[in-house]
Amino acid sequence: MLTQLAIQNYALINQLSIDFTKGLSIITGETGAGKSILLGALGLVMGNRADLSSLKNTEKKCVIEAQFSVDDYGLQDLFDSLDIDYESETIIRREILPSGKSRAFVNDTPVNLSVLTSLKVKLLDIHSQHQTMELSDVNFQFHIIDVLAKNQTKIASYKRGLKKYNSLKKELAILLQSQDEAKQQYEYNLHLFNELEEANLEIGEQETIEEKLEKLNNIEDIKLNLSEALQKAISEEMGVQSMLYSLENNLQKIASFSKEYEELSARITSIKIELDDVVSELENANEQVEYNPIEVEELNDRLQLIYNLQKKHLVSSIEELQKIHESLSEKVAQVEDAGEILTKKEAEIKEVETKLDELANTISKARNKVLPKLKKQLEFLLAELGMPNARFSFEVALSDNYYTNGKDDLLFLFSANKGGNFGELKKVASGGELSRIMLSIKKVLSENSKLPTIIFDEIDTGVSGEVSNKIAAIMQQMSENMQVITITHLPQIAAKGNQHYKVYKKEVSGVTESNLKLLTEEDRIREIAEMLSGKDITESALTHAKELLN
């Protein structure tokens, strides 16, 4: 419920602060006094676009602040989802700076305009002539029916399912596209994969082969030098081994004479042992050196295979070839396993689809169940509002399409005249008729859901007499369940409010300003009398005003 509105430096308003209460509040005033300015200010504080033309004084900032009592609206979860502090008395503030920039705050927390838009849906419904065009919007028509059918929870569940369904369908489309692209490359990838699979490459294999070939390709030099080295080591006359034996014998003979000779003898013995070991390995190496042309051919073929594969795949190591082998394995498997993957994804989609169909069917049945009641209520209210021949024709039928609120197609038709043809509301109803239809719908909605504060902007345009009394009565009934604020030019409606505000203009230092004030009982009598007879208030007008108020 809107409890307070404060405006500074906006349009013709210099400064204004007014309190609102529950029930039916009336706002009246002469044409051009500033009633539309109030609505513009409320629109701004709830997220409408702002510009510098909104500023009364372009050198100062404009501030609009609205306070709402939100205890009865169950908005804790919404505030949490918007990441703003929940307060039972929530204050929304909008500032427009002289630079043209604007700022918004909820309970002193800076927010962007999308947050205000989300809150507006729950807090404030400004009904104007323009809003009656919503009557022709199929989503609004479904909203009316779903409120009566109490489908909100089921539709929320359906929407979650639809989101998952669309996500799975998108995944399937990507899979199909990927499979199609993979199939085009499959034969070539399979050939490359089999080639690497048959090669059976091992890490370090290339270096080992290159080393073996290096040895085999120089076998003659290796054999010659090994033989000569062995001869120099073991020759009986001039061999290193023979000379070391002789040297060791000499030093052993004198080793006992001093510690120095003993150490020299030990060192020669150590060298002799190491040389004996080297000679043994030289003999083994010399015996093993053998040229095998078949082995050379095999090693050359293997190395050439490795080189060819590296050149083909533009790499320089077996490690890189193995990574390519793994990648090709995945690509080949993707195509070979495609049937199983697609079947699994299609099964997921079918499961979600079945649940969606069940929910959509439940939603549709609930809608059809309340249509006779909605038709009866609206036709009764419109008869009260001077449209006794108004008739509605509703038809809800399941389709094969998944819409955001179910699978139903809706025909929402209207006929204003007896024997007239049914047609779309925007084509067969006048502006005044649309206003009364919207009022009737809001009345029905207010009895079946917790509506936000509603502001009617001259919804009584084009009506008078008894119909205006009926409009006032409907607003009074609505105000028992919610806060209703109405801007009106009809005294019959103005007299039915629980409180009455007047928009007026005055000159301050030669500058015209708009203001708003709460009328006292006496002020109210004079205001209604003026609405009845004009500026020159007559006694009969005053008497009539008192009668209306009573």
TrEMBL record:
UniProt keywords, alphabetically: ATP-binding, Coiled coil, DNA damage, DNA repair, Nucleotide-binding
Coiled coil: 165-288, 318-369
Family: Belongs to the RecN family.
Name of this protein: DNA repair protein RecN
GO BP field: DNA recombination; DNA repair; SOS response
InterPro entries: DNA_recomb/repair_RecN, P-loop_NTPase, RecF/RecN/SMC_N
Pfam entry (one): SMC_N
Keyword Coiled coil: yes
Physiological role: May be involved in recombinational repair of damaged DNA.
NCBIfam families: recN
GO molecular function: ATP binding
Species this chain originates from: Tenacibaculum holothuriorum
UniProt GO cellular component terms: bacterial nucleoid
Highest taxon of the lineage: Bacteria
RecF/RecN/SMC N-terminal domain residues: 2-507
